[in-house]
């Protein structure tokens, strides 16, 4: 139907434009802030702090010795670059359109090319009141290099690696505050920033050659803050032997609400159809999390970092758009008898689960200036089972292997500025999954098949690395 095609084209263009707005992601959870702790598997709640302590554990901001600089240094600055390239298994010759989502069946290939994570990381901590519990403020930021922000909601029914499409393709900002409570106890408070986007659009499509079509949209963005709290304990008399820490993070959702009112004059001068709808989506979702960890010094040269995270993914909100309560009004003239009925959107029902994420890091000081680091993280899927029924959201179990090297210098060129240069490399392996779709289509039609039929392999890997430079001033 010509009218439906006009609405679809206009709506799609409006959605693409609105999604290009700024929202916040979480490169810290997926890749880690700074090469030092990234090389240690991200096990950073109890030690290994540098300029990015505001993210890993704000309680670590109040430490007088960051292992980089001696006591008395008030400013620690870190700058780094990070790159992570996704490489997923190809999915070919599967059903990508059926009678539940369109007017017929269509077999084809699925787009499994996802943008790499490439950006700069800046960390900063400044001791504001050394005499008042070493009160220190800090921040950690991530800014993509190739674009300011990128948003893609992905597909609701076609195979989609739901946590990898655009999760790290936008800026991130973490603010932290740390204080030394005495007797080895440190307390921290942080804020993770997110946004809500509300948009309203109106479209009028006119087919009369002597007239014009018009389009207008308005949008507003409001900031949201998800707090997190950190605690750290280092025995005063055995400060180099061990430390324990923990962080509790509240969930953060960057959501989008869009209301579109569209009209089309397609029957000369006397008939128009108004098509109105509201759509909802979570542009980005960060789960509530509890992170507990410790550092044990086996010797003057060797340290073991261990951490366990419990992430509450059971309340996950999908980034896919949901079309709500579509309706038509003012439908008069030829072809309008009986009105026009438009089906609302239906998102596949998935069962999400909370997960345990263990992290382990090993650090060995070869010399006073050279340090070797190794790390491992296991991240299970957030889904209770593979998507054999309606929908094809994918998140295979993941094994993350990291390696790193650290170099310490007492001078930066000719300046008396202690500095540390850290490198890391990572390989992330996604376990193979074979998805075999059940019979009938998503609406129960026995003469049709589900999107993704007859089945396909899921999995792949991500690889990359980074570099960080930290200065104590």
Taking the sheet with the most strands, its summary is: 14 strands, antiparallel, barrel
Q: Spans with pLDDT under 50 lasting ≥5 residues?
A: 1-25, 267-271
Q: Could you say what the CATH architecture is?
A: Beta Barrel
Widest β-sheet, arrangement of strands: 1-4-5-7-8-9-10-13-14-16-17-19-20-21
| Proportion of helical residues | under 10%
> How many domain regions?
1
Number of helices: 4
Distance between the termini: 68 Å
> Strand percentage, roughly?
over 45%
Q: How would you state the average pLDDT, rounded?
A: 81
Structural class: mainly beta
Sketch the topology as an H/E string, one letter per element.
HHHHEEEEEEEEEEEEEEEEEEEEE
Give a written overview of the molecule.
The chain has four helices and 21 strands. The protein is mainly beta. The chain has a single domain, classed as Outer membrane protein transport protein (OMPP1/FadL/TodX) (Porin, Beta Barrel), CATH 2.40.160. The radius of gyration is 26 Å and the shape is globular. The chain starts with a helix and ends with a strand.
Helix-strand layout with pairing:
Blueprint: H1 2-18, H2 27-30, H3 35-39, H4 53-56, E1 75-88, E2 91-97, E3 106-110, E4 117-129, E5 135-144, E6 160-161, E7 172-182, E8 185-206, E9 214-233, E10 242-249, E11 252-265, E12 273-286, E13 288-297, E14 302-312, E15 322-329, E16 355-365, E17 370-379, E18 393-394, E19 398-409, E20 419-436, E21 455-472
Parallel strand pairs: 6-18, 8-11
Antiparallel strand pairs: 1-4, 1-21, 2-3, 4-5, 5-7, 7-8, 8-9, 9-10, 10-13, 11-12, 12-15, 13-14, 14-16, 16-17, 17-19, 19-20, 20-21
């Amino acid at each position: 139907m010509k009218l439906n095609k006009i609405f679809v084209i206009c709506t799609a263009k409006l959605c693409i434009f609105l999604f290009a707005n700024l929202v916040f992601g979480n490169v810290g959870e997926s890749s880690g802030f700074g090469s030092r702790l990234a090389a240690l598997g991200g096990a950073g709640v109890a030690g290994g702090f540098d300029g990015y302590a505001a993210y890993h554990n704000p309680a670590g901001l109040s430490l007088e010795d960051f292992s980089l600089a001696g006591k008395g240094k008030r400013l620690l600055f870190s700058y780094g670059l990070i790159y992570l390239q996704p490489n997923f298994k190809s999915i070919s010759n599967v059903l990508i359109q059926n009678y539940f989502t369109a007017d017929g069946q269509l077999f084809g290939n699925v787009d499994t090319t996802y943008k790499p994570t490439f950006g700069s990381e800046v960390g900063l901590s400044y001791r504001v009141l050394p005499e008042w519990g070493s009160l220190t403020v800090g921040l950690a930021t991530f800014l993509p290099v190739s674009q300011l922000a990128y948003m893609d909601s992905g597909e609701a029914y076609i195979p989609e690696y739901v946590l990898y499409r655009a999760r790290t393709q936008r800026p991130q900002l973490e603010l932290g505050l740390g204080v030394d409570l005495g007797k080895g106890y440190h307390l921290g408070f942080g804020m993770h920033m997110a946004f809500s986007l509300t948009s309203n659009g109106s479209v009028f499509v006119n087919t009369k050659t002597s007239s014009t079509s018009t389009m207008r949209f308005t949008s507003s963005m409001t900031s949201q803050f998800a707090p997190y709290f950190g605690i750290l304990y280092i025995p005063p008399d055995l400060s180099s032997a061990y430390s324990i820490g923990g962080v509790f993070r509240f969930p953060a959702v960057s959501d989008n609400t869009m209301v579109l009112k569209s009209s089309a004059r397609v029957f000369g001068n006397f008939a128009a159809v108004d098509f109105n709808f509201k759509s909802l989506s979570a542009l980005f979702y960060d789960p509530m999390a509890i992170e507990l960890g410790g550092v044990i010094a086996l010797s003057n040269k060797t340290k073991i970092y261990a951490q366990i995270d419990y992430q509450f993914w059971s309340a996950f909100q999908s980034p896919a758009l949901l079309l709500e309560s579509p309706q038509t009004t003012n439908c008069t003239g030829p072809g309008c008898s009986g009105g026009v009925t438009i089906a609302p959107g239906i998102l596949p029902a998935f069962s999400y689960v909370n997960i345990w994420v263990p992290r382990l890091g090993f650090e060995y000081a070869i010399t006073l200036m050279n340090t070797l680091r190794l790390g491992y993280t296991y991240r299970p899927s957030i889904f209770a089972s593979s998507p054999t029924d309606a929908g094809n959201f994918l998140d295979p179990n993941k094994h993350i292997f990291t390696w790193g090297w650290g170099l310490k210098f007492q001078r930066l060129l000719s300046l008396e500025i202690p500095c540390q240069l850290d490198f890391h490399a990572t390989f992330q392996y996604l376990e193979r999954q074979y998805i075999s779709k059940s019979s009938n289509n998503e609406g129960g039609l026995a003469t049709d098949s589900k999107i993704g039929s007859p089945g396909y392999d899921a999995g792949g890997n991500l690889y990359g690395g980074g570099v960080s430079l930290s200065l104590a001033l």
